[in-house]
UniProtKB/TrEMBL annotation:
Pfam families for this protein: MoaE
Protein name: Molybdopterin synthase catalytic subunit
Compartments, as annotated in UniProt: Cytoplasm, Cytosol
Family named by the database record: Belongs to the MoaE family. MOCS2B subfamily.
Domain of life (superkingdom): Eukaryota
The organism of origin for this protein: Gopherus evgoodei
Stated role: Catalytic subunit of the molybdopterin synthase complex, a complex that catalyzes the conversion of precursor Z into molybdopterin. Acts by mediating the incorporation of 2 sulfur atoms from thiocarboxylated MOCS2A into precursor Z to generate a dithiolene group.
Length: 155
């Protein structure tokens, strides 16, 4: 194997197609890593007693991708042993049980990859301009992400 073939890489993708956990996990696998950690966020069928039919996501893609790149840089500073990072987020309609977001991180040992995955998804939800609309049986609602930094702005 050429030394450069396994340089640390970030794989960021926003698209309207069904996400694949196999595809995302394969992106981060490395022969020098003993851990691949995944977070898969899926559409559930209920929220606060209402039946959810599906979710719809919108994003300002250039800014969202730039913010995700910042998250990847932060991960590499906090966990220098992290090898590869993949963040794939689906846009548009996401039916119940399907993945909205998949985050994968590889590292030589599990602690770094597990902590990095948690940091990635929490920071993504707090800083990345991706908006979620929940479609219920008889209504819909744009959801404010209570974790996002702009939700705390004084009104």
């Amino acid at each position: 194997m050429n030394e450069n073939e396994d340089e640390p890489k970030d794989f960021i993708k926003l698209n309207y197609e069904k996400l694949s956990t196999d595809e995302v996990s394969e992106l981060v696998i490395s022969p020098c890593c003993g851990a691949v950690s995944l977070f898969i966020g899926t559409t559930r069928n209920n929220f606060e007693g209402k039946k959810v039919i599906h979710l719809e996501y919108e994003a300002y893609s250039p800014m969202a991708e730039a913010e995700i790149k910042k998250i990847c840089r932060d991960v590499r500073q906090k966990w220098p042993s992290v090898k590869h990072i993949a963040v794939h987020h689906r846009l548009g309609l996401v039916p119940v049980t399907e993945a909205s977001v998949i985050v994968a991180v590889s590292s030589p040992h599990r602690v770094a990859s597990l902590e990095a995955v948690q940091y990635c998804i929490n920071t993504l939800k707090a800083t990345v301009p991706i908006w979620k609309k929940e479609i219920y049986e008889e209504a819909y609602s744009w959801k404010e992400n209570k974790e996002c930094f702009w939700a705390d702005v004084e009104k």
